[in-house]
Design brief:
There is one protein chain. The chain contains seven helices and two strands; from the N terminus they run ααααβααβα. By secondary structure, it is mainly alpha-helical. Among the domains are: 41 residues, no CATH class; 34 residues, no CATH class. The protein has a two-stranded antiparallel ribbon with strand order 1-2. Helix 5 packs antiparallel against helix 6. The longest helix has 23 residues. It is extended, with a radius of gyration of 23 Å.
């Protein structure tokens, strides 16, 4: 087959695969197209800051969804996790010592809080988990470039 024709076939095959993935995943995504079309101002208006963090049990969350008319199967895939960093140098030192960690090995990290690193936190998105759910894969290892297991801890 001539080169130009093969390049076309490769692109076509990739497009078909993408289309298959998207068409398979769209019905399972928690996306409302009306919400996606909202302006940023409308979204900000709809979001409310809560003074106290809302905490629900799994059962309460499922019941809220059912009460809202959402039919769901049991779920529980964590996609995003977040945390507030401990920024107290003395507390970090005490905790390291109690865990048997030589404080000298992490002194630059601890010192960063002692000398002015601001209080901070954040969240991380599990990209591999998103890919697994988006593509309807049955195992996260199929979405991971370097999957880990007890026999493989390094690439």
């Amino acid at each position: 087959m001539e080169k130009g024709r093969r390049d076309f076939d490769d692109r076509h095959e990739i497009q078909v695969r993408k289309l298959y993935c998207v068409s398979r995943a769209l019905p399972t995504l928690p996306i409302n197209l009306e919400d996606a079309a909202r302006s940023e101002a409308e979204i900000e208006k709809a979001l409310q800051y809560l003074r106290q963090t809302l905490r629900l049990t799994y059962e309460e969350g499922v019941q809220m969804l059912k009460d809202a008319g959402v039919e769901i199967e049991p779920f529980g895939e964590e996609i995003i996790s977040g945390a507030q960093r401990v920024h107290n140098a003395e507390m970090l030192e005490r905790r390291a010592k109690s865990c048997g960690i030589d404080v000298k090995t992490i002194s630059t990290y601890i010192d960063s809080f002692r000398y002015g690193a601001p209080t901070h936190g954040g969240f991380g998105v599990g990209l591999e988990r998103v890919v697994m759910l988006f593509c309807g894969l049955n195992n996260i290892r199929k979405a991971s470039l370097y999957p880990r297991d007890p026999l493989r801890i390094a690439p």
